[in-house]
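Narrative of accomplishments. A recurring question from our advisory board has been how the design workflow behaves on a single, concrete structure rather than in aggregate. To address it, we present the structure tokens for one chain from the evaluation set, followed by the sequence designed for it. No filtering or post-editing was applied between the two.
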């Protein structure tokens, strides 16, 4: 086994966390499942595996992941979501690594699925994310949504063979719910940052994103699912900026009353 800690934050992920934890068997001696108030049997399933289950409050993605990392036994962290399992080739790659320094980070390929369909093009195609790093030199930022890792200036990025298998959404119903939820969270984030939604962003950005992912990034080659992904991205963009405009309008109306 490798001297790495796998850190997973989750809530109500009973449908997927078992497959993720099964894929990690034989990889690491320290797997942290940080649960944020599940009301299903997520934690019961997790305890069937040799993992450390912790429970804590939700503080947004960035802060919650940072809190969970502090519970890890090792400084090398493999950060996964509850629905992200690793394939056998990636497991072999992870077992074979010998990091050159604390500033080395590892970029992992993601294979994203909509239902049972592997999405090869569009927004989800050629998808890579840095998910293995040393917490002494790398940390999550504090963003509530779309969190990112803060890397040192001398970061040495290496790609690993194999893939993270990511069943993003089971069906369109789940996809639509997730799209709305993330759009609202992103609008709140932008509002707190003082960003505003222009006429262009509300009216033209959705269509531009559809063309970008469906035409220019060949999403049409994924068939019906590729069309759905591009349309959902456009819908997300519209909702995000429309909600952002609404938040600023509400603030202005409050000021006018005062």
């Amino acid at each position: 086994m490798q001297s790495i800690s796998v850190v997973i934050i989750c809530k109500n992920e009973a449908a997927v966390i078992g497959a993720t934890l099964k894929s990690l068997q034989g990889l690491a001696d320290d797997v942290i499942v940080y649960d944020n108030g599940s009301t299903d049997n997520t934690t019961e399933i997790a305890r069937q595996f040799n993992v450390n289950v912790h429970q804590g409050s939700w503080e947004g993605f960035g802060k919650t992941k940072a809190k969970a990392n502090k519970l890890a036994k090792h400084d090398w962290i493999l950060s996964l979501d509850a629905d992200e399992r690793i394939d056998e080739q990636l497991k072999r790659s992870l077992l074979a690594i010998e990091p050159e320094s604390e500033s080395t980070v590892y970029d992992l390929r993601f294979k994203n699925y909509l239902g049972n369909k592997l999405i090869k093009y569009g927004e989800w195609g050629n998808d890579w994310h840095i998910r293995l790093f040393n917490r002494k030199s790398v940390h999550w930022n504090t963003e509530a949504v779309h969190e990112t890792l803060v890397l040192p200036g001398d970061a040495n990025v290496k790609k690993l063979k194999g893939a993270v298998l990511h069943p993003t959404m089971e069906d369109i119903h789940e996809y639509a719910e997730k799209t709305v939820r993330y759009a609202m969270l992103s609008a709140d984030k932008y509002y707190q940052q003082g960003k505003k939604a222009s006429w262009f962003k509300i009216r033209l950005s959705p269509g531009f994103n559809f063309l970008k992912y469906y035409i220019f990034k060949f999403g049409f080659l994924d068939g019906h699912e590729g069309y759905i992904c591009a349309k959902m991205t456009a819908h997300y963009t519209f909702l995000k900026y429309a909600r952002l405009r609404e938040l600023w309008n509400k603030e202005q109306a409050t000021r006018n009353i005062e």
